[in-house]
Design a protein that fits this description.
254 residues, binds S-adenosyl-L-homocysteine, Methyltransferase, Cobalt-precorrin-4 Transmethylase, Domain 2, 25% helix, alpha/beta, 10 strands, 2 domains, Cobalt-precorrin-4 Transmethylase, domain 1
Length: 254
């Protein structure tokens, strides 16, 4: 059996209880060493076999899983954040399906949630933005043409940009070409929830300069949109005294 587990964004106590229990039971752990906090490996049994996938190919990862399966051992494949975001899990699952190896998934706290917590942000402020666009710039890995930064920028929704810290001049230009003004609020969150976490609130126009000034070159998320520092927004209807829900009657005296 293989368990795909989300490690969370960094702080070792941000893994789920289920994820921690799976780590404690695992005979083999394959962890994404470039971003998973190694402190999570302290949860492993003393005899657990540990592999760092940052140094492995997909084929090598699959070989470790196959071998463990042959020996009736439990494998945990530990991915950073939540495995469903840029986790490259599907290509592993497809091979496991072909070979009849059972697996399941345990979610984790994605770094885009860790970044919001670092800034005490609500991405979906009423009347400001009700959508979060998760995307990345095309780099060594392409992005489909129909998902250009410009086309997403046109929505003026909250945008969280992964995997793009080394391309911030271009990111700013494309955000502006798509419709954001240069003074639209933005933020850079480096290593959200890690001990050396850093947060910088800036604007679309100053993203690159801010990263340069603070030597941020990787492991960061860029958050763009008025939700980053909106001073005005509508209060939520859900908690409004005039609003009735399945769980609460209207407070007619308000
Ligand atoms: N599955 C992960 C994302 C993996 S892609 C998740 O759900 O978070 C790797 C990218 O995620 C990094 O290049 C960076 O942009 C972002 N990232 C991962 N952990 C981060 C953290 N703690 N703080 C800021 N960005 C992070």
């Amino acid at each position: 059996m293989v368990h795909f587990v989300g490690a969370g964004p960094g702080a070792p106590d941000l893994i789920t209880l289920r994820g921690k229990e799976l780590l404690e039971q695992a005979d083999v752990i394959i962890y994404a060493g470039s971003l998973v906090n190694p402190q999570l490996l302290d949860y492993a049994k003393p005899k657990c076999q540990i592999h760092n996938s940052a140094k492995m190919t997909l084929e090598e990862v699959l070989d470790v899983m196959r071998q463990a399966e042959k020996e009736g051992r439990v494998t945990v494949r530990l991915h950073t954040g939540d495995p469903c975001i840029y986790g490259a899990v599907r290509e592993q699952m497809d091979v496991l399906d072909e070979e009849g190896i059972a697996y399941d998934s345990c979610p984790g706290v994605s770094s885009f949630c860790g970044a919001a917590s670092a800034l005490n942000l609500e991405y979906t402020l009423p009347e400001v933005s009700q959508s979060v666009i998760i995307t990345r710039m095309a780099g060594r890995t392409p992005v489909p043409d129909k998902e250009s930064i410009e086309s997403f920028a046109a929505h003026q929704a909250t945008m969280v940009v992964f995997l793009s810290t080394s391309m911030l001049e271009e990111l700013s230009e494309r955000l502006v070409a798509g419709g954001y003004t240069k003074d639209t609020p933005a933020a850079i969150v480096y290593k959200a929830t890690w001990e050396d976490e850093k947060t910088y609130v800036c604007t679309v126009g100053t993203l690159a300069q801010t990263a340069r000034e603070h030597q941020i070159t990787k492991t960061a998320l860029m958050i763009i949109g008025d939700a980053v520092s909106a001073s005005s927004y509508e209060r939520s209807r859900l908690y409004h005294p005039e609003f009735e829900t399945e769980f609460r009657d209207k407070k007619s005296d308000c």
